[in-house]
Amino acid sequence: MTWEEKLKASREWVTLPKAKRKAQLKQARLQDRILQSEEKPIPPQENPFVIPPGMTPEEATREKIRLDAEEFPVTTRSHEEEIERRRMQSSRSSLPLRPRFFTGPRGGRYRINSKGCKSYDVL
């Protein structure tokens, strides 16, 4: 019995409003699709991590980490580069932004505020 059939067979189904019925039907159909997709068997995968003979699991793990680090190097910034980057960011943000004033068609002055609206509080 599918989720949809179970849902329609329940007592509450009759008393639900039409919008709720539609939403629950959609959910039930999604559950049915998930169940159908789960029925396919997943092929077993080989274990890529094999402990070589004569090594302890701890040594094998360290060797695997070392090999992974060589294969996928992590680039990090030096301490000086990081300080310089932060200094540049703080100097950019500390510069005062000059407000831009505009002149309307009749000579009135205005500015665009942070919300994107015209503000006529310009002297």
Question: How does this structure look, described?
Answer:
- With 123 residues, the chain is mainly α.
- The protein has a domain at 3-38.
- It contains five helices and three strands.
- The protein has helices at residues 3-9, 12-15, 18-38, 57-71, 79-94; strands at residues 101-103, 109-112, 118-119.
- Strands 1-2-3 form a three-stranded antiparallel sheet, with no helix packed on it.
Strands in their spatial order, largest beta sheet: 1-2-3
Cα end-to-end separation: 75 Å
Question: Low-confidence spans: pLDDT under 50, at least 5 residues?
Answer: none
Number of helices: 5
Provide the succession of SSEs.
HHHHHEEE
Mean pLDDT score, rounded? 79
How is the main sheet built? 3 strands, antiparallel
Number of DSSP strand runs: 3
Shape: flat
Share in β-strands: 5-15%
Helix content: 40-55%
- Using the CA coordinates, give the radius of gyration: 33 Å
Offer a few descriptive terms.
123 residues; mainly alpha; three-stranded antiparallel β-sheet; 7% strand; flat
Task: Please write out the topology.
Elements: H1 3-9, H2 12-15, H3 18-38, H4 57-71, H5 79-94, E1 101-103, E2 109-112, E3 118-119
Can you describe this structure in just a few lines?
This protein is mainly alpha-helical and 123 residues long. It is 51% helix and 7% strand. The chain has a domain at 3-38.
